[in-house]
């Protein structure tokens, strides 16, 4: 697709619909400047029919004609209020929510000049849903409920003209039209929960449209399928626990330890979808639909499945739908009942001189019928061979002589689960003939023989489309970077290039922290490092001085430990931005401890002194390079500090960055890279981990790795 792409965007013709569509398109154009948009207004049944009570209107009342315009190619996308999308949604179309939203709460609106004391005993209240009708009757049991229709200005005119005594409506509509002053009272969400999508906008498009699918990839997060293990939370992996810690929605099964749910954030939505006594609380097709819907809403979804999801867990039914919709996901294996029931109990399934293998299957067929476990059934099962790569040709020969088909798929997996995991696919005949293309390696390998060897999960979805990102920052930032890379469908390769070691002068300063009026830290790593040092010296946290941070990353790091900075620059998230802010303050007579890295410049301390402060400018830590025997193959690399750049160049050389996408945080990091003759490809506009990975995702959306070019302003 050419760089300068014009997309015809459908919207309803009301003032609110046009305004919110234009606002959304302006934001999209800022992110992807090569895109231009042409707005096309389309009337829907809800615009033409102003008589039907919305409480009994059809699901596609406000979308039908826009859906038809998409199918007929008159428009490329449509922008809707997210709550107006029909359920079920048409199979030939697709959708996603935009991340920008208004206040989702409902609001009471009274006629201009009226107050609550002016309401009659039996007020006439305009409502447009059963939910709002019930809320009205809870507050005004004698109210007369009356449907209300029309655009927002029309509804307010009807109210002010005396046709109603009050309206109950979405506050977002008033905010978007600049009519927030008409709100008489906001209703708390605890009193009146709102439908999913209220206050949000959604984009609809033709299923599989390459431009819109690429655009959506930037706004959705990869679903995490997590094996919960069985019986005890001990059998869920550390990777699974980390996924739970960052979940926004968790759909969970019954065959798991409920203690795992305590790892979820407090505000995460928990949905039980398990099966008890053969009865499904939620049907499998509905579970699959829920996963896809939450993903398209932009939420980070964890599907927590008992045991190992790949063993009798109906995993494929859920991933197949995400593949169909080109939505990204990642699968984390769990410890299955097979392992938990045998290894801890001593019933070892393999034991030298006793058993070289075992068979695992279920007698249940699709639909619950009994299929049996006869020899004929067992002989048709896939075969997995351990410790067999060096004798693979002989093993293939045995199977061919036994009557296995020559074209039977074979997969050879080296270093399973590691950064350098390699999967080679071939056939039984090629394996026997020695023509299979296998790497020359001493790495451990596993052979999978049979139909599963020909299958694989999609890795070409999400903004990063399987891009392998080498993450070189310090330990404090690794998990945050990994979460965002996985969100965008990438593969994080966590290889910190530096190790932080405390300086003696910093230890002394931290012991005297209570004597300072202010403490200045300018990176999340420094914040986490300081807190660890303070714990080591048993600092009394009640004596913490006031805090300065250089941006939201450092501020968030402070807040994760229970502290809130007094000063943070509003826009330029850097030491320079904090310096500009400090020039507005008088620090006469105040003592400031600035803890910094070895490469940080003196400007911040100099400005504080100019503003009257007594400053101790102390190096917090030294950076020790971490050397690896070999770095994994990567497509992109993320540098968060000049020290990481230097350590990488010393180990791998600048030539290792040839044909790689390089993203950096901050001017010092970019300068360190440029000094070696290699300018960064992407410099995050916002000097945070989130800003850097989001910038990389946009770069990948528009780069050679994508067939569709959406453009990106660096």
Annotation keywords:
single chain, 714 residues, alpha/beta, D-Maltodextrin-Binding Protein, domain 2, Cobalt-precorrin-4 Transmethylase, domain 1, 5-stranded mixed beta sheet, 23 helices, 32 strands, 30% helix, disordered C terminus
Layout: helices, strands, pairs:
Layout: E1 5-11, H1 15-31, E2 35-41, H2 45-48, H3 64-71, E3 77-81, E4 93-101, E5 106-109, E6 124-127, H4 130-139, E7 144-147, H5 152-160, E8 166-170, H6 171-176, E9 185-186, E10 200-206, H7 210-217, E11 223-227, H8 238-245, E12 249-252, E13 269-272, E14 275-276, E15 279-280, H9 284-296, E16 301-305, H10 315-324, E17 329-332, H11 337-342, H12 375-379, E18 383-386, H13 392-402, E19 409-414, E20 422-427, H14 428-433, E21 445-449, E22 468-471, H15 475-487, E23 491-494, E24 498-502, H16 504-511, E25 518-521, H17 524-536, E26 546-549, H18 552-560, H19 575-582, E27 591-596, H20 603-610, E28 614-619, E29 621-625, E30 636-639, H21 642-652, E31 661-664, H22 667-674, E32 682-683, H23 689-702
Parallel strand pairs: 1-2, 1-3, 6-7, 6-8, 11-16, 11-17, 12-13, 12-16, 22-23, 22-30, 25-26, 25-27, 27-28, 30-31, 31-32
Antiparallel strand pairs: 3-10, 4-10, 5-8, 5-9, 14-15, 18-21, 19-20, 19-21, 24-29
Helix pairs in contact: 9-10, 15-23, 17-18, 19-20, 21-22
């Amino acid at each position: 697709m050419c760089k300068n792409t014009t997309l015809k965007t459908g919207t309803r013709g009301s003032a609110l619909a046009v305004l919110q569509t234009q606002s959304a398109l302006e934001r999209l154009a800022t992110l992807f400047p090569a895109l231009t948009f042409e707005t096309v207004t389309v009337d829907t049944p809800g615009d033409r029919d102003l008589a039907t009570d919305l409480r009994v209107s059809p699901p596609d009342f406000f979308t039908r004609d826009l859906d038809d315009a998409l199918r007929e190619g008159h428009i490329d996308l449509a922008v809707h209020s997210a709550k107006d999308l029909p359920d079920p949604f048409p199979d030939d179309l697709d959708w996603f929510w935009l991340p920008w939203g208004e206040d989702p709460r409902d609001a009471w609106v009274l006629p201009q000049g009226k107050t609550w004391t002016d309401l009659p005993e039996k007020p006439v209240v305009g409502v447009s849903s059963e939910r709002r009708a019930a809320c009205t009757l809870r507050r005004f049991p004698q109210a007369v409920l009356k449907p209300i229709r029309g655009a927002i200005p029309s509804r307010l005119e009807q109210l002010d003209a005396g046709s109603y005594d009050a309206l109950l409506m979405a506050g977002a509509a008033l905010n978007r039209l600049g009519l927030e002053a008409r709100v008489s009272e906001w209703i708390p969400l605890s009193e009146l929960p709102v439908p999913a999508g209220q206050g949000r906008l959604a984009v609809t498009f033709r299923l599989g449209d390459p431009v819109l699918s690429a655009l959506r990839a930037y706004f959705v997060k990869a679903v995490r399928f997590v094996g919960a293990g069985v019986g005890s939370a001990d059998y869920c992996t550390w990777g699974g626990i980390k996924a739970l810690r960052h979940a926004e929605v968790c759909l969970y099964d019954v065959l798991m330890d409920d203690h795992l749910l305590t790892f979820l954030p407090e505000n995460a939505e928990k949905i039980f979808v398990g099966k008890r006594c053969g009865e499904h609380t939620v049907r499998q097709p509905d579970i699959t639909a829920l996963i896809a819907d939450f993903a398209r809403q932009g939420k980070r979804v964890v599907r927590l499945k008992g045991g190992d999801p790949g063993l009798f867990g109906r995993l494929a039914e859920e991933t197949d739908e995400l593949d169909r919709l080109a939505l990204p996901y990642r699968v984390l294996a769990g410890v299955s009942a097979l392992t938990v029931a045998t290894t801890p109990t001593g019933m070892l399934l393999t034991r030298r001189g006793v058993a070289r293998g075992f068979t695992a299957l279920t007698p249940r067929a699709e639909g619950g019928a009994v299929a049996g476990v006869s020899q004929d059934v067992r002989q048709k099962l896939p075969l997995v061979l351990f410790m067999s790569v060096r004798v693979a040709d002989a093993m293939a020969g045995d199977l061919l002589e036994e009557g296995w088909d020559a074209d039977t798929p074979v997969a050879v997996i080296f270093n399973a689960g590691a950064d350098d995991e390699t999967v080679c696919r071939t056939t039984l005949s090629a394996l026997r003939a020695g023509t299979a293309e296998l790497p020359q390696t001493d790495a451990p390998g596993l052979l999978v023989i049979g139909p599963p060897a020909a299958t694989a999960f999609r890795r070409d979805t999400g903004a990063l489309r399987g891009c392998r990102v080498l993450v070189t920052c310090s330990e404090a930032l690794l998990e945050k970077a990994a979460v965002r890379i996985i969100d965008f469908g990438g593969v994080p390769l966590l290889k910190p290039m530096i190790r932080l070691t405390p300086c003696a002068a910093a230890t002394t300063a931290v012991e005297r922290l209570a004597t300072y009026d202010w403490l200045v830290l300018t990176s999340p790593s420094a914040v986490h490092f300081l807190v660890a040092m303070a714990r080591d010296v048993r600092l009394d946290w009640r004596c913490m001085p006031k805090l300065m941070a250089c941006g939201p990353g450092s501020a968030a790091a402070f807040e994760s430990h229970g502290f809130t900075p007094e000063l943070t620059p509003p826009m330029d998230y850097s030491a320079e931005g904090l310096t500009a802010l400090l020039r507005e303050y008088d620090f006469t007579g105040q003592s400031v401890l600035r803890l910094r890295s070895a490469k940080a410049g003196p400007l911040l301390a100099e400005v504080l002194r100019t503003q009257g402060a007594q400053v101790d400018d102390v190096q917090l830590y030294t950076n020790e390079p971490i050397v690896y025997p070999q770095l994994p193959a990567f497509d992109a690399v993320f540098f968060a500090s000049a020290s990481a750049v230097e350590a990488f160049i010393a180990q791998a050389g600048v030539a290792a960055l040839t044909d790689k996408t390089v993203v950096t945080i901050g001017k010092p990091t970019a300068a360190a890279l440029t000094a070696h003759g290699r300018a960064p490809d992407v410099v995050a506009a916002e000097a945070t981990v989130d800003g850097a990975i989001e910038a990389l995702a946009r770069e990948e959306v528009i780069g050679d790795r994508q067939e569709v070019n959406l453009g990106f302003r660096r």
